[in-house]
Structure formats: structure tokens, C-alpha cells
Design brief:
The complex is a heterodimer. By secondary structure, chain A is α+β, with helices and mostly antiparallel strands. Chain A is built from three helices and nine strands. Chain A is globular, with a radius of gyration of 14 Å. Chain B has helices spanning 48-52, 69-80, 103-109, 112-115, 127-144, 156-173, 190-197, 215-221, 244-253, 274-277, 346-382, 412-421, 449-468, 470-474, 487-492; strands at residues 148-150, 180-184, 201-205, 226-232, 257-261, 281-283, 304-306, 318-322, 325-329, 398-401, 428-429, 438-441. Classes of the chains: A alpha+beta, B alpha/beta.
Amino acid sequence: MAETQIPEELAYTAEDEWARREDGQVVVGITDYAQQQLGDVVHIVFPEVGAAVTKGEPFGEIESVKAVVDLYAPIGGNVCAVNDDLDGAFEKINEDPYGAGWIIAIEPDEPAELDSLMDATAYAKHVAERES
Amino acid sequence: MSSAPGSVESLGHATRGLAWEEPLLFERGRPGRKGVDLDPLDVPEVDPKQLLGEAAVREEIPELPELSEVDVIRHFTRLSTWNYAVDLGLYPLGSCTMKYNPRLNEKVARLPGFAEIHPLQPPEQSQGILELMVRLEEALAEISGLDRVSLQPAAGAQGELAGIMMIRAYHEQRGDPRKKVLIPDSAHGTNPASAALNDFECVPIPSGADGVLHPESVAEVMGPDVAGLMLTNPNTLGLFEEHIVRICEIVHEQGGLVYGDGANLNALMGRSRPGDMGIDVMHFNLHKTFSTPHGGGGPGAGPVGVKNILAPYLPIPVARRDGDRFALDYEFPHSIGRLHGSFGNVGMLVRAWAYVRSLGRDGLRQCSDMAVLNANYLLARLRERWHVPYDRPVMHECVLSDKLLEDCKVTTLDVAKRLIDYGYHPPTIYFPLVVHGALMIEPTESESLEGLDRFAEALLSIEREAREDPDVVRSAPHRTPRSRLDETRAARKPILRWQPS
């Protein structure tokens, strides 16, 4: 497997989403490992802005040349932004999963819910376990 | 042409042969060229705008190609030579059971009494086809260990939908509507789709490290709000779900039902019966297990079988014996309704019946035995050089992965493309999702020992190439009319319509 980037400052789900606090909102994307496993991303089914999401429940779908998989919310709340720039430029998810490839932002109901996610060390272990 | 044994030229018997380029129909033809000569109009001309309304009539005639009959015939015949078919060679798509379709089936389906009958003829004029349907239902019930069968669904996915609709109707009828359906992570994608279409919430269950489902994992999520469990046995890893009896008990103890996905029935015929394992409802893919044409070759047929508790909910009409005659029964007040016009894809039912009758009990058992033996033979020939994620005896298919080729930077997709150069249709790839880089191979019982050896040699040869000359694999295929297509660009920026240049 190629090297995968797992930034220290992010929180992670077991389903390979990352989450980052930003001005009271939580920005969500998929990890470098997830984009490597999926291969070239070709489509995303986004939620509506304003839609309610529940921690651990699907909020959308991501399709690559290999598979279609659900996207899981790392935290409960309401969707306050979706990354429209990805439309027609899904390669950003493969090229820059933690930056330009962000997918949605959530206005969290309980910001502290984020603390129950994995930190970088725990997520690195989670990835390694599946690779073994 | 002579070629070294074991080479890309010799193994799958693919050569360049006569291979044609073929433009789009839009790029062929000339203005004014015609395929038919019509007689002069001998009826009064009508204005279509008056007849149909302004909105229904185009201002401009679209730019359709103008062609002669021979242009059209050659176009499609040339394109057909780019196809691969089970009549050309091994078609090892895992989970698809691409077995040979015996010509005897075709002969029987063309008998005028079957081929020329009309579905609206009254039952007294259709006794032959009704008898065939009743006897096929009885045969499928016997093979599966279920009580009743409906032949109506047009394909496996519709049979599955019908099965889950019956499970839902059963719970609702008892005044106990339920919310959830349990589905293992190795399931076919149609399983959650069928459940979701019935407004069920899908709860995934992880399979164990040994690739099969464990009773504890089912017990953990089973509860009084669960309508049922859907599972495939053998599962999509080709492994027999050995805890199936206990798993069915756990679901039944809490009032749930078990749906068996019949996609992999080809491994079991004459050896074990899903009904005996505890399964309450399953579909049959006649176009897989029972050798009716598959893919582009013909419509599917996905009969659904049930235990007696679900019989009141079967789709109508139900064909049945009436003394020594045969009749159609519409008196099923709890029926989920009609799923298909007339009686389903009846031509496929005739072919499946021909298959069942020509092979008989012993023949069907031998098919499953050979399908299992063939898959295990391939696995045994390949396991030394290929990574086998769940390395244990399999049923009718086996799953390899590209893990050992990571160092050469050769992926499953590259291997699949290179197999085309060897003259084979690639196997199913990147499924099941629980295996990274999966290559899922189902040889079926149709292949001879020599045929299996050639295919194994091809995969072993590709593995050598990946180590010695990885570029030739990474850039495959080389022997096709087009080389590697840009699948990503095709998905991201598809061109769906021809435009005049």
C-alpha cells in the first residue's frame, strides 16, 4: 500500500471520514486512505443544505470507478455547506482529500460529540489492522 | 500462426484474426440512401399537427443517418464480433454463473405449442404451458426445499423485491409491522436495495475473520423490530455459511424471517436445500443456475419460492393443478399483487424446464459437484502465486486479490485488462467489497480440465509478467480494437450523444 497521510489535528470515523472544527462548524471529508481504496472519484450525492444529519448515519454517497459507498456523519447537526466546487472536479478528492476535497460542513448540535471520534494515532492503527 | 506454448498467443487461443474498425452509424451513409422502397402514398395525407396537436410535432427532422439495409446489417454484425460470449470461451464472472446454455433448451422453446401461444388464450387452450409452469414450480420447490413457487418475477432483483414484499406483508398482516432488515457485509448490492424499496432500514452485519457469518453477530443485532435477515449461501466469497441453521433459529426465535439470495444456488443442487437450512423465502436465477440465456442474450427470470407461511402473499396469478387439468388461481386475498404482465418471461421457463428434465436429479447434482470441483481446482492451481484472502475450501467460486502484486504496482484492474489479451473475459473485480482488490472467479461446470488449465496458466503467466515486465500488464489490453479506455474520464465527463463535427 502507498503511504497514507493522516494529519495529527483531525478526528476520524471508523468508516474513513475526517472531521475538523472550524469557526464553530465541523468540516467533513474522506481520508487519504479512503480515496486510495476507492480510486478515482466520479460522483457524489450531496445532502441538501439545512438537512439534519445523525452521528454514525449516512448523509450521502460517494461513487468511484470501483464502488459506491455511503458517507457517514462524524457528528450530529445540520448541514450548513456543501462543497459545490467538487461538482465536475471530483479529482480534488483524490488529489487533496483534506483540503480542496472537503465534502460538507455541519453545524453541530453537540460539539463535544467530536471527542468520541478517533485521533490520528487510533485511526492509523485502525487502517493498519485492516491492511494486515 | 505458430506460437510458443504458454505464451500470450497460445493460452486462450486469441489471435488478431480479421478485426474491423467500425464507425458510428451517424458517420456512415449518404444523404438520400435508403433501406426500403415505399410504394407511392395511396391514402389521403393527414396533417400530423392536426391529428396529434402542435406540441407533439417536431419543427425539424433530427439528423438521422441515411443507410441501406446492408450498411445496417454490416454495422451491427461487425460490432457483434467485438463481443465476448459464453459460446466463445470461458466467462468467469464471479457471482454471475455464466454457464453454457445447451442448444436443447432452444429447440424445446421453439416448439410451436410454446413459441406461438398467446398469453390471453383461455386456460383450456393453454394446458401445455400451464402444465409446464406447474411442474417447473414443483421441481424448483423440490430442489430448494420450499413449499410454493411463483414464476412471475423477471429477474433475480425482482424476485428479491417480491420476497421482501412478502416478508413485509406477513408482518403487517399479523399486526406486527417491523422496521429493520439485517444484511451481512458480503451481500450483493441488490439486497439492501430490495429492503430499502420496502422502507426497511438496513442493518449491516460484519462477517467473521474466516469470511462467514457468526451466530453471535446476528444475535447482537436481532430484535423484535427486525423483519428478517437476507443472506446468500454460499456467500459472495464462495464460502458455505456453515452456521446457517443456528443463524436461522436466532432470527426465527424473535419472529423474523430469513431471505435466501438464490444467486449461488449453482453450488448446492442435489446436495443441500435452502429450505432445510431454515430459509423461508428465496429467489432462483433461472438465467444462472438453470442455464437460460444471460446478459444480452435474453430476458432473465427470477422465480421466488416460499415456505407455506408466506404462500398467502404470493404474486397472482398462481398456476395450480385442478384434478388432472391445470388452472390459474387469482383468489389470493393477501397477495402482494401482480409483478409482471401475463405470466413472466415464459420462454425462459420453458428453457429452464428443458434443462431440469434433460439433466434430471443426478445430472443437476453432478452440475453442482463439478462447479464446486472446478472452482477448487483453479484455487489449488493459483494459490501458490496468488494471494487468497480466505484460504479454505470454497464452493462454486473463489476470490483472489492483487495484494502480492503491490510491490510491482500492478493492480486487479491491470490484471483484468491483461486477461483480455489472453482471450478471456475478465472475472468480476473489486467485489465483494470486503476484499481489497478482489478478483472473483466462477468457472462453472461447463469447463473441461484443459480449459481450466489454460485459464490458470494465463493467470500464472500474468503474475510472471507483473514481476518481469509490469508495463505490459499496466498498459493492457494490447490486442483489442481499442487499448485501455479512460474509465475515469468516461464517468466524470461522459459524452452521451453524437454531435455533427
